[in-house]
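Example record used in the benchmark description.
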Amino acid sequence: MKTVLMTGLNGTVAPHIKKILATKGIDTLAWPRDVVSPDDQAACTEFMDRIYPDAIFHIGMGAESWAAQMAAWCKNKQKPFVFTSTVSVFAHTSMGPFTVEAEPDAQDDYGSYKRRCEEAIKAVNPEALVVRLGWQIGDGPGSNNMVDYFYKQAEGRKLSLSNQWYPGCSFLEDTAETLVELFLEGRQGLFHLNGNPGLNQYEIGLAINKLLGNPWDIEAVDAPAMNSLMRDPRVPVKSISEHFIAND
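Model output (structure tokens):
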């Protein structure tokens, strides 16, 4: 294994995956969207044939037809294909914990889009590795992660968090390490990656606040009431509680 072709390297998760792959001696090549348009099927095929990566990680956004094309190319070339989906394939009104047997029922734009991608990939490459992720926990503002959300929701130092919301989530570095582990083990099929053992948003917020040096005054509220926890005993992701305990 020498080179992975990856989408989404300008996003939240992909750069962390790239770092972990590098520690394994695997190079990462970014999909150059400004040169090879995902909408140009012929150009995409020519590019993949020319680069001939050892695997493709589809972490970014794009039409489900693009996801299906990459997945089909990997199937035909007998190369691994990895796709990161989301717990958002389940409706916000549905209550977890969700197992991989649970039927996706999202109706919103993002959740429906990810559902369609999953279906398109499975139709052409049943051996693809599809991993549903929860909310990612980063170390600061400026990207699409839970800490960034907290900064945006805070009114000055005041931050209100729900003690009735149980989010599926994991720390970014743990997500990346676990994804790479599943990939290198040759796993195939659908998996759930969640590091939250059962903490609510308020409890998580208090712990993150301590990790960051207490930038907020946090109060508990009882809305929204949601449960987006995921369960999958096959996925050994580090518990978020381990990060919090280490900081005590």
